[in-house]
Amino acid sequence: MKTKQIALLVAVTTMVLFTAGCEGLTLPGAFGDPPEKWTDSYETESSEEAVIPEKENPSETTEVTETSETAEDTWGYELSGAELADLTEVFNTQEYYGFLLKPFSSPEDIDWDKVLESGAGISKEASEAEVAKYREVTRDMDYSSMATVITISEKDLAEYLQDHAKVKLDRRTLKLNWRYFEDTKAFYHVHWSYQEEDAHYTCVSGKHHGDTYTLEFRKDDSSEAGDDANRILTVVENGGHYVMQSNEFLWGNNCDPDHSFVKVEPVPGDGVLDLMIYPPTGDSNSCEMYLVKDGKSIDYSRLYCSTGDNGEYLTEISEIAFFDFNADGFKDICITGFSGTGTELVYLDESIDKNYTYESRFDLEDWFYANMGSGYTVRTIKEALLGDNTDEVYADYKEAYAQLIKLAQMNENSNYSYDLIDCDGDDIPELMIDGTGYQVSLYSFENGHVHTLMHQWGYGAGGNSGYSYAPGKNVFYNHNQDYAGAIHYESYMTPEEGTEITTAYYKKAYFFNDADGDGYPSDDELENSDFDEYRVDYYCCFDRNMSEDKIRDTIAEYESYAFVEMIGRMSCEEVMKKLGK
Q1: pTM exceeds 0.85
Q2: Which tens digit of pLDDT belongs to each residue from 231-287?
Q3: Which helix (H) or strand (E) holds 526?
């Protein structure tokens, strides 16, 4: 929910950002009437929690009259140093720490997986029996000494959500990647030690009006830019707890004012994003780039550019442009500039899907470095990549595929082969680009643009034997192995709208006697196994409640298909002739 306080705060924040550019933001602390009190849905048992500091009595330090508008009426009271120190301590406890880590615009927007990642002070380590059941239900033994199964009771989680966000626990709608067991009425999750946050946040300023607080936190020992920028947390004190309202990251802090807040709509119809650039700071030797949507980072990159056998980071930006050079209808990123050594560089990121997935095109960067050397401009780069097709429009699949082949051939060190295959049974073939023995890409043509089904998927190393497709069935197959053949995976993949194909089902076969049941082959287990197939587990990747019988039946149907190996069978000249180009 958004209160009048937040609306006014956003308005003031916007005004300050507009007038102050990208400098650090000092908020005047705008407030209206505090929201009404809420009624809890759960009774709260006493437990060890962070202690809410008592706020100082403004009447003891501020002269208030009934006949004039006071600073408190308009802006709220500045918090004292002692109060800021107390709030720093409170929000670095497990109970509150997770709310500082990700931005959110309302309680309904909170990333609960992040908040609860380390347990939020209400989790406990699962018992051996619970861990055994968790492994049995998830059919996944791939844990290590770095992983711990933690659990939170349904009652404790419900109370936590109510106390800290006034959100009711509804397992059908709550976005939480934890497993729920009905018999124990508890949630379970695998916690990895490397996920633990160890940063410390300091409350550097704040104001309060009634029970409403607006607090600015700084991430200590950081660049104070991008994801590490200061953040404005708005909370309401209620019933001995702080109730979250919003957490706004100050993306304008320490940005490059000449190349930030660049408005762009990479995915048509999905809203406008801000591109933010941050110059090198401290030990960093690179500019950093963020794409920010609705106050949240959706893509991040350090601007590394390839220069043939080596590469350098951009430290100074000249130009930034968005245009579609890979024919998929989504805008790609082009940046020119200089490295710290004065080398002129070009940075190219191509879009892969509607979810703002970008991949570096080092091969194209190499081409420009080798063939143009210097004098890069967005105009000359666009001309080299698109030729006369500056409108980025393709009349049919033949033109779009020819553009992809042109880009592939700009990689002067490649040995690509090609094929036009029928994966889905329609009248338009799919284009396969095979970097023989190393990687394969696959594209379809839909609604006037390319749809990337596979982007440079590696094979030929690490036990991955490659990929196959079932003609006309839209099903893809991969066989892979791990631990020198002790574990085999057989995966069946299907397309997704606007994204790459994803694994729908897979089998995991154990060719060793997993005596300790940990899912990993120890030296003793390998020594005492004859590499026969000991056990096979079956998985569905999109429905955790699907029965094993149904998974087996679906995989059996897929196994009956006649799969064809995905390898290039035509040269560039042959495929272009086939396309009439």
Answers
A1: no
A2: 999 999 998 999 999 999 999 999 999 999 999 999 999 999 999 999 998 777 899
A3: helix 523-527
CA 533 to chain CA mean position, Å: 37
DSSP 317: E
**Does the structure show a pLDDT above 60 at 320?**
yes
Judgement on whether residues 561 and 452 belong to the same structural domain of the protein? yes
Dist. CA 23–CA 217, nearest whole Å:
16
Residue 85: domain span: 4-248
Cα 425 to chain centroid, rounded: 33
Query: Do residues 14 and 139 both lie within one domain?
Result: yes
- Provide the b/e sequence for 50-69 (b: ≥16 CB within 10 Å): beebebeebeeeeeeeeeee
Give the 3-state secondary structure of residue 60: helix
Same-domain status, 71 and 18: yes
Model confidence pLDDT, tens digit, residues 553-567: 999 999 999 999 999
Angle between helices 362-371 and 378-386 in degrees, nearest 10: 110
Same domain for 363 and 429?
no
Over the chain, what is the mean pLDDT? 85
Helix H or strand E segment including 575 = helix 572-578
Domain identity same for 414 and 516 = yes
Pure H helices in 126-285: 128-138, 154-165
Residue for token digits 């192995």?
A: 481
d(C-alpha 554, C-alpha 80), whole Å: 64
